[in-house]
Specification:
CATH architecture of the largest domain: 3-Layer(aba) Sandwich
Strand content: 15-25%
Structural class: alpha/beta
Order of helices and strands: EHEHEEHEEHEHEEHEEHEH
Low-confidence stretches: 1-14
CATH class of the largest domain: Alpha Beta
CATH topology of the largest domain: Rossmann fold
């Protein structure tokens, strides 16, 4: 598929800069409030808005209608689907195969992955000698960033899928013995995310112990059922809020640098 080229004039000035987030749905997105607070603290005349896009094919129309945009965050379900709409991709994002941040300059769109940055920086302080193998729950765009980080850290992983994804095992294959061998478990699925907070990945949670680390990329609610089950069995738990903050700051660094 040939890369599309969007012809529009970027009307931003030093005192008028616009950012946003695309995905669907976006009603409970953290990003608009986070960046508006940041802009206010820095006394910047900048805006950050949510742009719900049911289909990634709506992106060209959005960019044509909002020529003032210079940067966008990208969330579910578009982190992989956006790739054909980019003119270039950062090296790490290309390896990951998913993008959650784009910069827009002179009609050209460049993609980056700051999920990997946020995940790595928030995970490393929690790792111990026990965390030699990992399970990644899910096979979407976020799971790709997690897999990339674990590979960089030298931690072998196995992906778990509820949809018979290629290269992944099924939840029914996650036995107590498998959990015992994989002391790091990362949930990259939306299972347990608000408003469906009673959902949790189907795991034999009673087989968890104090050497396990359960990391959930979800941050709303603060403690998902996945984490509740882990904590009840002695595991260390971590939600995705710090990762979210770190990836947002990494996005800001990218937008300021380009």
């Amino acid at each position: 598929m040939a890369l599309p080229v969007f012809f529009w004039t970027n009307h931003t000035t030093k005192n008028q800069v616009h950012y946003g987030i695309i995905g669907y749905p976006l009603a409970h997105s953290f990003s608009p409030a986070y960046f508006r607070k940041k802009f206010a603290s820095l006394h910047l005349a900048a805006t950050y808005d949510a742009y719900p896009l049911p289909h990634i094919s709506d992106l060209p129309a959005l960019l044509a209608a909002q020529p003032q945009l210079v940067g966008l965050n990208v969330t579910l379900p578009h982190k992989e689907a956006i790739l054909p709409y980019l003119h270039s991709v950062d090296r790490s994002a290309a390896v990951i195969g998913a993008v959650n941040c784009i910069s827009i300059k002179e009609g050209k769109i460049t993609g980056y992955n700051t999920d990997a940055i946020g995940f790595e920086q928030s995970l490393i302080p929690l790792l111990t000698a026990h965390h030699t193998q990992a399970l990644i729950l899910g096979t979407g765009g976020s799971s790709r960033a997690v897999a990339y980080v674990l590979q960089q850290l030298g931690i072998p992983y196995t992906k778990v899928s509820g949809s018979n994804a290629e290269g992944a095992i099924a939840y029914s294959d996650v036995t107590p013995a498998l959990l015992d061998a994989h002391k790091l478990i990362v949930n990259t699925t939306p299972m347990g995310m608000y408003p469906l907070i009673d959902n949790a990945p189907a795991l034999p949670y009673n087989s968890l112990g104090s050497q396990h680390l359960l990391y959930d990329l979800i941050y709303n609610p603060e403690e998902t059922r996945f984490l509740v089950h882990g904590k009840a069995n002695g595991a260390t738990t971590k939600n995705g809020f710090e990762m979210l903050q770190l990836q947002a700051e990494a996005s800001w660094d990218i937008w300021c640098a380009v």
